[in-house]
């Protein structure tokens, strides 16, 4: 038995904007005598857009009407009706407009992205999606060592490390093609503050040509080589490189990073690595920045670097392919969902960790009640009803070990008491269990809740969102298939 | 002493091992497995044999107020040699059902020891209440649940002949194995009766804390029973 989902990915980056449409095949993978389990068994790229320059109004903000017009035209050209889109993600990546009008953009694109879409960006999520879209994650399943994917776009370089398909670390650097903008004469129009700080901070780094000056090709080449060298050494976790490059880190500088067995480069700069290197300042500046020369620096270094470095299978579109094909997860198929409650969007997660089971039922019930009350109080404090939606938050339930019926029943009591005392009886009860127990917990709660609360209950499982993640929960495709997007950071946190 | 491979691809092998409880890469001591693993193997085998010969504890049945009926199994030895004897109730038990059970219920729940009494002792307290919650959520009415001593899966048809339920679910102890000796199956059939075949029945198997989670199995069985009654079908004819 199979079912298809239509998913869109839209990536609005510092330099370029692109989108894809994909078809995801849901397949029942469990055998008939087990509980049903669905997986996304195949991902087909149905449409790939050209790569457009990102429409900006000034240097500061995304030109929302222009982006909307671009997508309108693209959808019409490809014969796509927005209503067919069932899941996916809009990513505002890199330094784009410092993400200031991200929310405005998300609203503008809500129609194109279907009734259920994530408008998310955050460096870690970008890195992860790029690594999945580039093919690096799949590569890590074929090899024993760690495979790092470094997605280098206009504004940032997002690194993710995979071991046997699992992400084990991420890091983001101020390294990108558009961090130094050039005119064809070699005149420097703009240099990013982080690069200036990095260049000024160390004697080993060649000086960055000052803004307004005409830089020689030679000087530009030295800077690009140094950026490439520093980036790759940092990606390999070299202690001296990490210590000397604190200014290049976006967010908290990493003290340690694992040493990969292979480095894949994706993103716009990754795509340029395969072309001929520029031979002059004018050739370098063909996109108005140092991107081609940075790519040449990386390609040159790749030949001699201690760790194999290669351009990714999917380079320029790695992130958008990841966004379009890899963001949807599925809840465990035995779930509970009141009719008409879904979809739900942008629900923050509060984690409730259940204590280990106590031998005595009464003691255990007390411990569970305490844990639930504490988590719900924290949820109310963080996402109170005044500013919050319905539900104000989802509770991520984590139980250590086996959950018996006795414990399940005490958990249901604990949740009802906690929500009732926090005066959340009117709001939707959205529960996400790490253990396979959503249907039985939902059934138990249904039996214990009063009207109309019992009609506003959603229980999902086999998903482990982290505290502060945001969830988009889609409409059920069948009684037992609910697509979920777990957004690790929203609008850069 | 424990020997393993040469370290080539060990990571990958460990990753594969995490998907199975099978006894892989235990190493060896001389020409036989290490003592610990050898003893573990014999312990698990003994537990499997004990489970077959054990009886369901009276407390388990009392907890849910289940009365006991008997098949024509006579004793364990006869039961093992003649599986057919476990598919028919004794005349006395048949009279007892007629006497004590609601006739023609929507859902009939039956519990049986089958090949592992321990499966019932260990899992009934988690499966049965979760199943009853699920019946309530799905709007299904239950008949009079009871226990069958010496049952085989085919006893569903004899009970179906006597009580004429719309749907019947049999919670029965599975043949014990070396991974667990306390695994339960739930067999389900729409309008069971003489002449029903295996293809008319469905099963959720491997129900124990290390396999199909018992509470979630109970919940899912409720959904399946509703679908069976809605579609008036079970087994291969049911669109799950």
From TrEMBL, chain B:
Pathway(s) of this molecule: Amine and polyamine degradation; ethanolamine degradation
Compartments reported by the entry: Bacterial microcompartment
Cofactor(s) recorded in Swiss-Prot or TrEMBL: adenosylcob(III)alamin
Cofactor annotation comment: Binds between the large and small subunits.
EC number in record: 4.3.1.7
Chain positions recorded as adenosylcob(III)alamin binding sites: 153, 174
Gene3D superfamilies per record: Ethanolamine ammonia-lyase light chain (EutC), Ethanolamine ammonia-lyase light chain (EutC), N-terminal domain
Lyase is among the record's keywords: yes
Catalyzed reaction equations: ethanolamine = acetaldehyde + NH4(+)
A GO molecular function held by the record: ethanolamine ammonia-lyase activity
Primary localisation category: other
Keyword check for Cell membrane: no
Keywords: Bacterial microcompartment, Cobalamin, Cobalt, Lyase
Function: Catalyzes the deamination of various vicinal amino-alcohols to oxo compounds. Allows this organism to utilize ethanolamine as the sole source of nitrogen and carbon in the presence of external vitamin B12.
Subunit structure: The basic unit is a heterodimer which dimerizes to form tetramers. The heterotetramers trimerize; 6 large subunits form a core ring with 6 small subunits projecting outwards.
NCBIfam families the record matches: PRK05465.1
Protein name, per record: Ethanolamine ammonia-lyase small subunit
Organism name: Paenibacillus glycinis
Organism ancestry: Bacteria, Bacillati, Bacillota, Bacilli, Bacillales
């Amino acid at each position: 038995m199979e079912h298809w989902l239509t998913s869109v990915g839209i990536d609005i980056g510092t330099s370029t904007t692109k989108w894809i449409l994909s078809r995801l095949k849901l397949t029942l993978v469990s055998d008939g005598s087990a509980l049903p389990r669905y997986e996304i068994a195949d991902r087909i790229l149905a449409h790939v857009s050209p790569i457009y320059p990102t429409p900006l109004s000034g240097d500061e903000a995304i030109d929302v009407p222009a982006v909307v017009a671009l997508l309108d035209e693209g959808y019409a050209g490809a014969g796509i009706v927005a209503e067919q889109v069932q899941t996916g993600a809009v990513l505002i990546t890199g330094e784009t407009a410092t993400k200031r009008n991200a929310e405005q953009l998300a609203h503008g694109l809500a129609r194109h992205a279907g009734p259920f879409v994530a408008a998310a960006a955050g460096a870690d999520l970008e890195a992860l999606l790029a690594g999945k879209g580039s093919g690096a994650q799949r590569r890590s399943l074929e090899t024993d060592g760690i495979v790092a994917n470094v997605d280098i776009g206009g504004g940032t370089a997002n690194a993710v490390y995979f071991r046997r398909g699992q992400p084990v670390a991420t890091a983001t650097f101020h390294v990108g093609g558009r961090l130094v903008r050039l005119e064809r004469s070699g005149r420097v129009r703009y240099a990013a503050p982080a690069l200036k700080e990095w260049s000024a901070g160390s004697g080993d780094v060649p000086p960055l040509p000052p803004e307004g000056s005409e830089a020689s090709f030679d000087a530009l080449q030295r800077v690009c080589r140094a950026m490439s060298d520093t980036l790759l050494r940092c990606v390999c976790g070299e202690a001296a490189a990490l210590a000397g490059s604190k200014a290049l880190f976006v967010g908290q500088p990493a003290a340690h990073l694992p040493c990969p067995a292979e480095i894949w480069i994706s993103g716009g700069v990754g795509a340029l690595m395969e072309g001929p290197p520029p031979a002059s300042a004018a050739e370098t500046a063909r996109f108005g920045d140092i991107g081609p020369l940075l790519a040449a620096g990386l390609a040159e270094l790749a030949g001699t670097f201690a760790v194999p470095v290669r351009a990714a299978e999917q380079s320029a579109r790695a992130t958008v392919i990841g966004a379009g094909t890899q963001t949807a997860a599925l809840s465990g198929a035995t779930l509970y969902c009141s009719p008409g409650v879904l979809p739900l969007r942008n629900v923050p997660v509060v984690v409730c960790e259940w204590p280990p089971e106590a031998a005595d039922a009464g003691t255990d019930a007390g411990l569970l009640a305490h844990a639930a009350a504490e988590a719900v109080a924290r949820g109310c404090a963080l996402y109170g009803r005044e500013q919050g939606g319905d539900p104000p938050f989802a509770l991520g339930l984590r139980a250590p070990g086996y959950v018996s019926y006795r414990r399940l029943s005490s958990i249901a009591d604990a949740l009802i008491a906690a929500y009732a005392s926090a005066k959340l009886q009117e709001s939707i009860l959205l529960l996400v269990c790490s253990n396979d127990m959503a249907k039985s917990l939902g059934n138990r709660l249904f039996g214990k809740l009063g009207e109309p609360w019992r009609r506003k209950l959603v229980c999902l499982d086999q998903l482990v969102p982290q505290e502060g993640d945001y969830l988009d929960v889609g409409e059920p495709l069948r009684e037992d298939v609910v697509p979920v997007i777990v957004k690790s950071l929203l609008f850069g946190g | 002493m424990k020997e393993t491979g040469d370290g080539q691809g060990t990571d990958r092998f460990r990753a594969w091992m995490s998907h199975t409880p099978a006894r892989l890469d235990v190493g060896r001591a001389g020409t036989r497995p290490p003592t610990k693993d050898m003893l573990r193997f014999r312990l698990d085998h003994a537990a499997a044999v004990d489970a077959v010969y054990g009886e369901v504890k009276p407390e388990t049945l009392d907890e849910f107020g289940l009365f006991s009926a008997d098949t024509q199994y006579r004793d364990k030895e006869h039961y093992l040699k003649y599986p057919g004897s476990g598919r028919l109730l004794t005349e006395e038990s048949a009279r007892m059902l007629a006497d004590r059970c609601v006739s023609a219920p929507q859902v009939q729940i039956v519990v049986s020891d089958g090949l592992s009494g321990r499966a019932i002792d260990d899992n009934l307290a988690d499966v049965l209440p979760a199943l009853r919650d699920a019946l309530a959520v799905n709007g299904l009415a239950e008949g009079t649940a009871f226990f069958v001593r010496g049952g085989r899966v085919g006893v569903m048809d004899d009970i179906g002949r006597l009580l004429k339920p719309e749907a019947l679910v049999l919670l029965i102890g599975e043949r014990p194995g070396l991974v667990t000796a306390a695994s339960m199956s739930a067999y389900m059939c729409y309008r069971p009766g003489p002449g029903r075949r295996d293809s008319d029945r469905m099963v959720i198997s491997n129900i124990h804390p290390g396999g199909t989670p018992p509470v979630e199995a109970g919940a899912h069985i409720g959904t399946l029973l509703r679908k069976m009654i809605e579609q008036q079908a079970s087994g291969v004819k049911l669109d799950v």
